[in-house]
Amino acid sequence: MSGHLSVLQANVNHCAGAQDLLLQSMAEWSIDVAIGAELYAVPPSPHWAGDTEDSVATLVRPRAGPPLVVKARGRGYVVAVRGKVAFVGVYFSPNRDLTALKQFLDVLGPLMGQLAPLQVFVASDLNAKSMAWGNPATNPKRREVEEWALAAGLPPLNAGAVQTCVRWSGGSVVDVTFATPAIARRVEGWRVETGVETFSDHRYIRFEVSPPPVRRASSSTSFRGRSQFPRWSLSKLDRELAEEAAIGGRWSLPPLSEFGLDEATSQLCDVFSVVCRAAMPPAKR
């Protein structure tokens, strides 16, 4: 994958107008890849890859890059590969119970392991509420999803606590983006679009992915490259969220004695990045 990649995550709530608006937004913003949940319909097109029930799909802008290759699909999930990146669209209805969620995640878990060495994005609406991705209240489904994400090595990208679903009865953060750590470090500008019409009760999520870094031998060049790392709004740090994310990160961290210095440093940076994304918004540049 060369150049920047622009990604959009949406839930159109089975509305034809919302799905049309999603396609229009893709064109206006030059979105390369979109993942949509609760779709109105999934057309028979090489630019679309849907699950078995047309409830979630990945779609690409024509002529925007490599075609989609479907690796797996089932009820509520589709795995589509574009270049060296796998995009996993996931939807789980709030009307299904906790037992069904466990069974659903038991199917997804092995699929994630089979995707290596690809980098992975999971655009999900699992209707699980957790402080780990910014929802102030929790529900029983969150523990299952947290444990699944930790086991799969997929930290959440959600930054801050902006509601992704807004209804007359209240809002919540149920639309969550997960990613493998290596490509998570290349994500720029993850945000919930609060001032954009969607014709749905869900807001758009947008982010960009920078190209893979060019590795250089010069230590001085590497030092200058650090200025490209994300900056965080420390004044808005949520200490409780930071602590919860740090505990989860520690569970997923292998013994550092197994690695050399460079790899151990990279492992720690992954955990620090997860904590920062969970506990505070990025600083405005």
Automatic annotation (TrEMBL):
GO terms for molecular function: catalytic activity. Pfam families: Exo_endo_phos_2. Residues 87-205 form the Endonuclease/exonuclease/phosphatase domain. InterPro entries: Endo/exonu/phosph_ase_sf, Endo/exonuclease/phosphatase. This is Endonuclease/exonuclease/phosphatase domain-containing protein.
